[in-house]
Amino acid sequence: MRLELEDSRILHSDQVWHYQMKSNSHTLKTYGITQCMSRKGNCLDITVMENFFGLLKSELLYLQNFMEHSKEKLENYIHYYNHQ
To answer: Which residues form the Integrase catalytic domain (predicted)?
Structure first.
């Protein structure tokens, strides 16, 4: 799935200092990206996005690494079994 130019883009973030810098805000505006920050001291504002990215990492990234690691170990085991 690709974003089209007319699709709206949103950057969800907390209030870390580098997201609050004017240069960052200017760059986002240049590319038509809306900045969405949580309120100060309120981590619950972006809970949905935090949950989404947590699931994304666990289901895609970590699973992929696990599968690649398991495949490599299995290939090594089979090679050892057949040649030793």
So the answer is: 50-84
In a domain, 3, yes or no: no
Mean pLDDT of 52-62: 81
**Does 71 reside within a domain?**
yes
Most distant CA pair in the chain: distance in Å? Answer: 63
Q: 18 lies in which domain range?
A: 9-83
Q: Partners of 83 in the beta sheet?
A: none
Report pTM: 0.39
What are the structure tokens assigned to 33, written together? 């990206």
Q: What confidence tier does 34 reach under pLDDT thresholds 50, 70, 90?
A: confident
